[in-house]
Design a protein that fits this description.
Elements lengths: L41 E2 L3 H4 E10 L2 E8 L5 E8 L6 H16 L8 E6 L3 E6 L7 H8 L4 H20 L2 E2 L8 E3 L8 E3 L6 E2 L18 H5 L6 H15 L31 E3 L1 H14 L17 E3 L15 H10 L14 H10 L10 H5 L2 H7 L7 H13 L5 H13 L3 H14 L6 E2 L1 H14 L9 H15 L7 E2 L2
Parallel strand pairs: 1-5
Antiparallel strand pairs: 2-3, 3-4, 4-6, 5-6, 7-10, 8-9, 11-12, 13-14
Helix pairs in contact: 4-6, 4-11, 6-9, 15-16
Enzyme class: transferase
Cofactor: Mg(2+)
EC number: 2.7.11.1
Length: about 500
């Protein structure tokens, strides 16, 4: 990583303790409103005193993502290591710190979880939950085309995360397959939204003006410089189009032939189709690192696979395809995005339901004010139909979950904060998977939170599952119990229970 060494390889020592929230130092903390973000500390302790690096998971333009292990708990985590030499610009540092602050505020089963934030002389370290399934980008390459059931499951999760963000006045602004990770390698792995570097808070009465995003997924209004949170819906609509289109998303290894070499321009992200790029042997490594690690895009016109990299020339695709908007270079792509025109004319669309196409049309509606919201998209017929039977929870699990919630009602506020801390840092994905599934079943609107009405319906559904007549229940008694539950476990007193 250069002359300045990161602290990944340092000796073990006594780390600074974490999880000390304001207001927890004395008394029972009856007035404490606990949130997951209060445990995400900005630490100046020596990173390697707490964590041991194991292997590199990936590389990006600002640094590496490394699999690490907590020396105290043994828990694995993913650490984004960012060299300060790469964030010399004030805007870059502001982007990084903004990402940390936003992640501290977000607690949702489809949004990445941040544990800690370290800083030393040469590096920043973002310590988060580890996800082993890779990018949705890689899954698209591997599977080519997704069934409507699988596509609906993925898009429902993305929309759920977006709905939650928008509800909290946060817009992502760079949704694409590379920024959607799979929790595991299993076929039904959950989706996690990552990379909040371009995200920001928004106000309903004010339009955003920054022209940022990724060419293929950026909304037309962003290019025009006046937009709102529905730009995220457009980007998700593009992803849905790609999942169902069956078109090969270009990630090509190009034919290589030995020819006279010339210098490689690492600042160029695009090349015209058919134009050869000549490489010297010593440039192969930097070329691969640049295209594979830093500038890879789900629809990139250039992708040099390491197995095909050798001295000589390689060629971009003659006919690049990137549904629904494509072009020979970034300029052409953005021009097509700006027009916002796409079709369902290719043969594979004949196999796709009209309901799916209807949702795509609503998500890719050109005028933002006419475009469907993320919340309403969750209620669309296609999402509801194709995700209806995917969540199943047995009666004992649901019964035990509600029983545990009831028993939790008497817990002191400080103990609640401790439980929240353990849930946010010390609980593995396997340990929380069943509980998440239970809460997911109760989460009727799919926004990643349980409100009062959903808890009431959850109690009634449990009665039906146990063969009892829910209509015979005392409505006021059920509501009273739900209110007690909310009072006990609604840590931040927002009227909802988060379950990530």
């Amino acid at each position: 990583m250069g002359q300045q060494e990161s602290t990944l390889g340092g000796a073990a020592g006594e780390p600074r303790s974490r999880g000390h929230a304001a207001g927890t130092s004395g008394g029972p903390g009856d007035h404490l409103h606990a949130t997951p973000g209060m445990f995400v500390q900005h630490s100046t302790a020596i990173f390697s005193d707490r964590y041991k690096g194991q292997r590199v998971l990936g590389k990006g333009s600002f640094g590496e993502v490394i699999l690490c292990k907590d020396k105290i708990t043994g828990q694995e985590c993913a650490v984004k290591v960012i060299s300060k030499r790469q964030v010399k610009q004030k805007t870059d540092k502001e982007s990084l710190l903004r990402e940390v602050q936003l992640l501290k505020q977000l607690d949702h089963p489809n949004i990445m979880k941040l544990y800690e934030f370290f800083e030393d002389k040469g590096y920043f370290y973002l310590v988060g939950e580890v996800y082993t399934g890779g990018e949705l980008f890689d899954e698209i390459i591997s599977r080519k085309r997704f069934s409507e059931v699988d596509a609906a499951r993925i898009i429902r999760q993305v929309l759920s995360g977006i709905t939650y963000m928008h509800k909290n006045k946060i817009v992502h602004r760079d949704l694409k397959p590379e920024n959607l990770l799979l929790e595991s390698k299993s076929k039904d792995a959950n989706i996690r939204i990552i990379d909040f570097g371009l995200s920001t808070h928004f106000e309903a009465s004010k339009k955003m003006k920054d022209k940022i995003g990724t060419a293929y997924y950026i909304a037309p209004e962003v290019l025009h410089g006046t937009y709102d949170e529905k730009c995220d819906v457009w980007s998700t609509g593009v992803i849905l189009y790609i999942l169902l289109s069956g078109e090969s998303v270009p990630r090509s290894a190009f034919p290589v032939s030995p020819r006279s070499s010339s210098s490689f321009c690492s600042s160029s992200s695009f090349c015209s189709p058919g134009l050869p790029v000549y490489l010297q042997k010593r440039e192969i490594k930097s070329c691969v690192a640049f295209y594979v690690g830093m500038q890879r895009d789900a629809c990139a016109l250039i992708y040099l696979g390491t197995q095909d990299a050798r001295a000589g020339a390689f060629f971009p695709d003659e006919k690049p395809r990137c549904p629904p908007f494509n072009g020979a270079n970034e300029y052409d792509i953005l021009k097509k995005v700006e027009k916002g025109k796409y079709t369902f004319e290719l043969p594979q669309w004949k196999k796709v339901s009209e309901s799916a196409k209807d949702l795509i049309r609503k998500m890719l509606t050109y005028v933002p004010s006419m475009r469907i919201s993320a919340r309403d998209a969750l209620d669309h017929e296609w999402i509801q139909t194709y995700t209806k039977e995917q969540i199943s929870v047995d009666v004992p699990s649901l019964d035990n979950a509600i029983l545990n919630i009831r028993q939790f009602q008497g817990t002191q506020k400080l103990a609640q904060a401790a439980l929240l801390y353990m849930g946010s840092k010390l609980t593995s994905q396997d340990e929380t998977k069943e509980l998440t599934a239970i809460f997911h079943k109760m989460d009727k609107n799919g926004d990643g939170q349980l409100d009062r009405a959903e808890l009431i319906e959850g109690y009634k559904e449990l009665m039906r599952m146990k063969g009892q007549d829910a209509s015979m229940l005392d409505a006021s008694a059920v509501e009273h119990e739900v209110d007690q539950v909310l009072d006990a476990v609604d840590f931040d007193k927002n009227g909802y229970i988060e379950y990530s």
